[in-house]
Amino acid sequence: AMQPPHCRFFAQGRCNAGDACRFSHVLAPTLSSGASTTVVLNDPRPPKLPEIIGPLFSVDVECVATGVQHHDRSLAQIGLVDADGSPVLNLYIKPERPVVSYLHPLTGLSAELIAQQGIELNDALARLRATLPRDAILVGQNILKDVEWLGLKEGVDFACAIDLAALFRVWTSENRYAYFSQDHTAAVWLRGTPFARAPGAFHDALADAATSMALFHCFCRARTDLAKLAQLQQATLSAPRLASFAMQNPVFEGVCQGHRRTCTCGGPFFS
Question: Would you say 27 and 39 are in contact if contact means Cβ atoms under 8 Å apart?
């Protein structure tokens, strides 16, 4: 069937007809003519940013394995950066239980590093709470999981959180959302910068927090230009996705990595 002409007002962010518009809200052309899935701009639930009235921070954690199941993890690093991406805290933590694996290729952590710089968990959390303003807005990839690990409470320890996974998701022509890892999103949106991590490079809580902040600012700039936003979304959708550490290593040093398709431990999934 012949497709309706593209809505030039929608491309400019000025279409008031919504779903009743007789013109197409699919921005064209896409960046990859070979892509079987394209971006559709009439997202049924477009991301909404809260009013930024408090200071921005990004927090990230790394965990070590304290058992062989994929949920046997303990905090081992907390990274906190400010709105400029500058380091505020970089805390290494002595796990409260014996470590089965430091998951070094994934976390960059080691027994030597923790032994030299690690502090008690309660001390680390106290320092974090003393540093983080109560009106802080937290930014991060799946940030609520980090918040859960840290035991922080919205409205008590911080004002609100912005999840980058929701900001960078894409509503596609298959009528579903596509979600992306931080590494994948950074490789497209922050290409050519130090934030675009090389394939196979290990993670670091402080570096991941800085990458989250850089991505957030990049999104805020792009969202004012719908054509540019759609180009970046299409590039994100079209770029090949590298297999995650868990996919490449279903079991590492005897520890299940918790990929749903390759889980070997039979442990529960909580999300």
Answer: yes
